[in-house]
Each structure stands twice: as C-alpha cells, then as structure tokens.
Amino acid sequence: MNDPNGDVAPIHNAETVGAESILLVDDTLVLRERLSLAMQQRGFRVETAGDYDEAVEVFSSRPTDLAVLDLRMPGKSGLELLRKLLQMKPDTRIILLSGFGSIPTSIDAIRAGAVNFLSKPADADDILSAFMRGDKPIVPEGIVAFPAPSLARNEWEHIHRVLSECDGNISEAARRLGIHRRSLQRKLRKRAPEDPCVPDACDENETSDS
C-alpha cells in the first residue's frame, strides 16, 4: 500500500495494534483463509468461523481481543453477531465488513458498538489501520455533507437490506418485515426515492437550469 507521496505505508502487526488475537468471520472460505494467513504473519493468534453459530462457539472457548465480521452471512447477520460478542466480552474491538457499504448500514454498525465499518475488498493492512485509528468511529466520507435521508429512502434501504440478508427470498423477507408478500413485491417494483438535495448542489442545479 502506498500513500500519495509514494512512500510505503506502514504495515501494522499485533504489537503495534496492541492486541494478541483476532477472530475472522466470513462465509467465503478462500477470503477467510487468505486473511487468516495474513494476520498470522503479523503475529496474531487467529480464530476463524463461517457463520454466527460457529463464531459464538469458537469465541466462547477462545475469546479474542479483536474481531472482523462479515455483515452478510447465511443465518444471522454480522450485526447480530457483533451484539452477541460484545455481550460475551464487552472490551472486544470489532470491525464490520460489507460488500455493499452504505451510510445507514455503517451507522447501524457504529451504534451497535463497532469500532469501524469497512467496505469490501479490505486487506489485512486496511483492517489493522482501521483498528489503529482508535475507538473513534470513522463515518464514511460525505455523511456530514449530506442531509438525513428521507423516511421513504430509509424504508427503501431497510427493505433491500432485509431482502439481501434473506438471499432474495421475498416470502422470508416479508415475514421479517411483518408485511404481506404482495405488499413487499409492490414496494420492490418502485425505484429508490431520492434523498434531500444538498443545499450547495441544489443552488448549482437551479443556476444551471436558469
């Protein structure tokens, strides 16, 4: 990893991060093993799991200082696992990974107690750098510049998040959302609502339209 000045970015390890062990939870075996090897090379005792139940079992017998959780997994989500691990060991520092990062999802993760939220792909250096930033959540760039999403937009994102967690199963998603299957289908046919316009951008649009 290089910085804009062409210097090689420092590679963090167990000593610099101040932790001895890390739990990696991802349902993709290849990614999990590759990240596991990278963390072992950096001096960590590494524990791995492929889903919520396996992670809880591993963590119960061999708790870790750090944890990196995939948001979307078969069964219970990474967000649910995050809450469970913090119940078991409140001082565990946790990062959530997602292949489809969004501001509302990152806020959910931070509110649940995550140190940070990263979008995939993220390598060992990305993850350890996020831990090194300290326990101050790093909110995705742009969150300050944009106003709060509309209620319609929040609903739309929530519906699609639940549908994604159900692997596209509309019946299961409707059950979790507490609405009729046909009602969910009607909502899914709608386009994503627009967020409120940023004041500066709105001014520019008005200028260009005039």
From TrEMBL:
Residues 21-135 form the Response regulatory domain. The modification 4-aspartylphosphate is found at D70. Residues 190-210 are annotated as: Disordered. The keyword Membrane does not apply. CDD domains: REC_RegA-like. Keywords: Phosphoprotein, Two-component regulatory system. Pfam families: HTH_8 (PF02954), Response_reg (PF00072). GO terms for molecular function: sequence-specific DNA binding. Residues 201-210 have a biased composition (Acidic residues). GO terms for biological process: phosphorelay signal transduction system. InterPro entries: Bact_response_regulator, CheY-like_superfamily, Homeodomain-like_sf, HTH_Fis, Sig_transdc_resp-reg_receiver. PROSITE patterns: RESPONSE_REGULATORY (PS50110). Gene3D superfamilies: 3.40.50.2300, Homeodomain-like. PANTHER family: PROTEIN PILG (PTHR44591:SF14), STRESS RESPONSE REGULATOR PROTEIN 1 (PTHR44591). This is Photosynthetic apparatus regulatory protein RegA. It comes from Novipirellula aureliae. The lineage of its organism: Bacteria, Pseudomonadati, Planctomycetota, Planctomycetia, Pirellulales. The gene is regA.
